[in-house]
Structures are given as structure tokens and as C-alpha cells.
Write a structure and sequence with these properties.
With 331 residues, this protein is α/β, with parallel strands linked by helices. The chain has 2 domains: 2-93 and 116-143 and 236-276, Bacterial extracellular solute-binding protein, family 7 (D-Maltodextrin-Binding Protein, domain 2, 3-Layer(aba) Sandwich); 148-234 and 279-329, Bacterial extracellular solute-binding protein, family 7 (D-Maltodextrin-Binding Protein, domain 2, 3-Layer(aba) Sandwich), CATH 3.40.190.170. It has 12 helices and 11 strands. The protein has helices at residues 2-17, 35-50, 68-77, 112-119, 122-132, 175-184, 196-201, 212-217, 243-247, 251-286, 296-317, 319-329, and strands at 22-27, 55-60, 82-86, 136-146, 148-151, 168-171, 187-190, 207-210, 226-229, 234-242, 290-293. The strands form 2 sheets. The chain has a 6-stranded mixed beta sheet with strand order 7-6-8-5-9-11. The radius of gyration is 21 Å and the shape is globular. The relative contact order is 0.17. (2S)-2-hydroxybutanedioic acid binds next to loops.
Length: 331
């Protein structure tokens, strides 16, 4: 009798897991409440409803499954009917596309609408083309927002290079970011996202740069003294999936997934706009770190200090590509 119960339980559980012909594991490193977390959940909910029995999407937030570097390796190796999907920050793709480093350049974009002008253009599609040869299929650009700087210390970051001197800043695995921190006068240190809170709390680094939703959801503001609203560069994502898995899907399923992803991208932009204002307010209301805005003059100094970063990466990114981007953005 016990055996029968056990067997039926196994069948039940088994059928629960294998509810769909194809499984997509969506792995990301941030909180579910960020623009990426919410868009990934939207995508999963809609696929699970509209493609029930055919495709099931499971979302793994907070680096539960992989960090960003590992996920791309795992993605390239994944086979069969389970596909890995992720949306790592554009700053983490240098191994796969040097062109995408353009998105990291300081003061390239005035605001998110300029980012969208580029992300929605054929130029951006060309920037992702090298990925497919490496087993990764790019599906779309998602936003987080413009980045601000936080710091522990006796004053906010305003004057360059003085306020950055002697301070260590956590950055993502981007050489453009490293060059930018050095140009501002600080010392960069690359660390995975999931180590940032502890590194700030324990003083391994003094500061970091990120978008508001990451600062708020991971409580960085609770262990920092000042946040400078610099909006100096962009934090956004490329939604990617195992190319083998994607190309092996029946065409009609792929078309439906693409349509749902397009909706999720539109939602992501709404979520990002909400977070930019909403999470800044939450950080201000929480009262831990004091939020300061740069004056126009200070901003001009930051911009001048970092102007050489683009020159340094011009050959890597592609001089023609950079020209096209500037023409598109009109500055
Ligand atoms: C970071 O490492 O700061 C970001 O890439 C995290 C994220 O995915 O927003």
C-alpha cells in the first residue's frame, strides 16, 4: 500500500514538473522587485498562461541559480528541451561583443529616451550579431536606468578628482567602467553583484555606482553615507537565451515567445520609469544615505574628466560604429 502511495506521489510530482514540453529557466541576479525582475516575471506569467502545456518558464532571481558570468557559460553548453535565459547587464558582454561596450561609455546618453533611440535601431541589432556565433541568441534590450554613485565617508562625491581620490569603487566586469573610475580619480574593483552589499558593509570598497532600484532593493543605501545623482551612464540589459535551444523550438512556439517578449520589453520600460522616480524617493525617505544632485558646473567637470574614455576604447568598439551612434543621437 505504502509503495502504491509513494508511486502515485512520484507520478504526480513528476507530471507537475514535466507539465510542458519545453522548460525555460530564466536566471537573473537582482531582486524580483526591480524593472528586470518584474519584466522577467511578466514574461513567465504570460508564457505559462498562453503556452500552457507547451512551454513553462521558471524565474530564478537574486543569483539563486547563476551569477552573470556563469550563466553565459552554462547557456552556451545547454542542450535539449530545457533552455537557459538571462538578462545580464550590457556591461558583462565584452567577451562576446566588443561593440556593446559603447553602452558603458560615460555621458554618452542624456537620458533613457536616447538609450531607446539606440536600442531600437538597426545599429544595436548589429552590435549583438557576434553573440550568435558564440552560442547565444540576443532577444531584446531591457532597461534598469541611469546610474548614480554612492559613497561612505565624510562628504558626497562632487569634486573630481578630489572626492574620488583614495576611494575604492565596486564596478561590474567592464573595462570601460574601470577606465571611467580611474579618470574620475578613484580605484576600481570588479566584484559580482551578489557580493556588493557585504563589500560595502565591511569596507572592502568605499562606494559603487548603480541604478536606483538596485540600490534600494539590495539596501546599499543603508551602508553608505551619500548618493550623488550623477546619471553619468546607463545600466541596461540584453535578454539572451541558448541559441541551440531557441533555434530548435518549433517555429510557431518561437513566434509566440517573441511576441510575449516584446510585451515584456514594453512593460520593462514602464517599470524602469517608475523605479527611477519611485526608488529614489524610497531611498530618500529611508533616511540612511543623503541624496545630493550635481550642479551643472560639477557635471561638466565630471564629463570633461571622463572624455578620454571614449578615445581609449574607440578602436575596440569601432570608430565607425561610434560615429554612427553619435549621428543617431545627434551629439
Ligand atoms: C550589477 O552587477 O551591478 C548589475 O549588473 C546588476 C544587475 O543585473 O542590474
Amino acid at each position: 500500500m505504502k509503495k502504491i502511495i509513494l508511486l502515485s506521489l512520484m507520478v504526480l510530482l513528476g507530471s507537475g514538473v514535466a507539465q510542458a514540453e519545453y522548460i525555460i529557466k530564466f536566471s537573473h541576479v537582482v531582486s524580483w522587485q526591480t524593472p528586470k525582475g518584474r519584466a522577467a516575471q511578466y514574461f513567465a506569467d504570460e508564457v505559462n498562461k498562453r503556452l500552457k502545456g507547451k512551454v513553462k518558464v521558471e524565474v530564478f532571481p537574486n543569483s539563486q541559480l547563476y551569477n552573470d558570468n556563469k550563466v553565459m557559460e552554462a547557456m552556451r553548453l545547454s542542450r535539449g528541451k530545457t533552455g537557459l535565459m538571462a538578462a545580464p547587464s550590457l556591461s558583462k558582454f565584452v567577451k562576446f561583443s566588443r561593440q556593446l561596450q559603447a553602452f558603458d561609455l560615460p555621458f554618452l546618453f542624456h537620458d533613457l529616451s536616447e538609450v531607446h533611440t539606440l536600442a531600437d535601431s538597426p545599429i544595436a541589432a548589429a552590435m549583438t550579431a557576434p553573440l550568435e556565433r558564440k552560442g547565444i541568441k540576443a532577444l531584446g534590450f531591457w532597461d534598469n536606468g541611469m546610474k548614480v554613485f554612492s559613497i561612505k565617508g565624510d562628504r558626497p562625491l562632487r569634486k573630481v578628482p578630489d572626492d574620488f581620490k583614495g576611494k575604492k569603487f565596486r564596478i561590474q566586469s567592464s573595462n570601460v567602467h574601470a577606465a571611467m573610475i580611474e579618470a574620475l580619480g578613484g580605484t576600481p574593483q570588479k566584484l559580482p553583484f551578489k557580493e556588493v552589499y557585504t563589500a560595502l558593509a565591511q569596507g572592502v570598497v568605499d562606494g559603487q555606482e548603480n541604478a536606483w532600484s538596485n540600490i534600494f532593493s539590495k539596501k546599499f543605501h543603508e551602508v553608505q553615507d551619500y548618493i550623488t545623482v550623477s546619471n553619468h551612464s546607463y545600466l541596461g540589459y540584453l535578454v539572451v537565451v541558448s541559441a541551440d535551444f531557441w533555434n530548435g523550438l518549433p517555429a510557431e512556439i518561437r513566434t509566440e515567445l517573441e511576441a510575449i517578449l516584446k510585451e515584456a520589453t514594453a512593460k520593462n520600460r514602464e517599470f524602469a520609469a517608475e523605479a527611477d522616480q519611485g526608488d529614489r524617493k524610497k531611498v530618500e525617505t529611508a533616511g540612511f544615505a543623503k541624496v545630493v544632485d550635481l550642479t551643472d558646473e560639477e557635471r561638466a567637470q565630471w564629463r570633461a574628466a571622463t572624455a578620454g574614455v571614449e578615445d581609449r576604447f574607440r578602436d575596440q568598439i569601432g570608430a565607425d560604429l561610434l560615429k554612427q551612434i553619435h549621428t543617431l543621437l545627434g551629439h
